[in-house]
Amino acid sequence: MYPRTSKNKVQFEELFFSYHKKVYAYAYKKTNSTYIAEETVQRVFIKLWDNLEHKEVLVDINAQVFCITRTVLLDIIKQENRRRHNLQEYSITDSYPSPTEIFSAKELKHQLDQHIEAMEHFHYNKDAGMFVCPAGHLAIKKARGGKKNGVTNQVDSYFFDVEKCKVCPLSEGCYK
């Protein structure tokens, strides 16, 4: 516990070096934004500096740091959402993704990684413009699905000769 009667630079530095990485990691994990994580660290330790001087009640410093962190992080996220809403209302473009966009991007990346991992043993032949299976068989057909000017992107599907797959020694897991 630290005395709250005067600003003590040494004690504050000890607190900062003990907790700044934890505060940053918590904020970054929640938002995936270095800007918000850095802003959170700054605001948390400004509040903590003020609290060390003004609070007379001794509270567990660990609980106090993370209570302040949670509150500051929520304030920053609300502030960012208000800012984005105002930018959209006045048709001003914004270069920073919202927390929802970040979450959606993470989900999309995860899905893409899963699909890429599933197709790892296939490779793309640029000359033919088709995929080649691990046995060396070239896809026989390429089809594009989805609306051209729709909300979602079009999807390319590649088809292989099923008769070759039936007799292929590497067909386990390939042929359905």
Automatic annotation (TrEMBL):
UniProt xrefs under Gene3D superfamilies: 1.10.1740.10
Transmembrane regions: none
GO molecular-function terms, A-Z: DNA-binding transcription factor activity
One of the GO biological process terms: DNA-templated transcription initiation
Domain RNA polymerase sigma-70 region: 18-82
Superkingdom of origin organism: Bacteria
Name of the molecule in the record: RNA polymerase sigma factor (Sigma-70 family)
Organism name: Sphingobacterium alimentarium
